[in-house]
């Protein structure tokens, strides 16, 4: 008998391999084996302008004047931003700047303190 796992959706024991996926003939559920899922998961590392790794809760400083899109406001160079949150997307830092409010920044324009 094969040592393939049961279907995680319907618990059927009649699973089979199709290429690099496992397939359940009863519910048509397809999934990758556990060892392949671990290899495909990537943890995104966010780095500041100097190459330091950023984490949630870090404090950073803005390295150049940044215009705020849609308004005449400017985030000045040297502005300290506390308690950042890392998010997915082009602007990978979500934060709250005291004088301006909620803001999203690109990590290439900040440096870790």
Automatic annotation (TrEMBL):
InterPro entries: YjdM, YjdM_C, YjdM_N. Residues 46-112 form the Protein YjdM C-terminal domain. Residues 4-32 form the Protein YjdM N-terminal domain. Pfam families: YjdM, Zn_Ribbon_YjdM. It comes from the Bacteria. Belongs to the YjdM family. This is Protein YjdM. It comes from Paenibacillus xylanivorans.
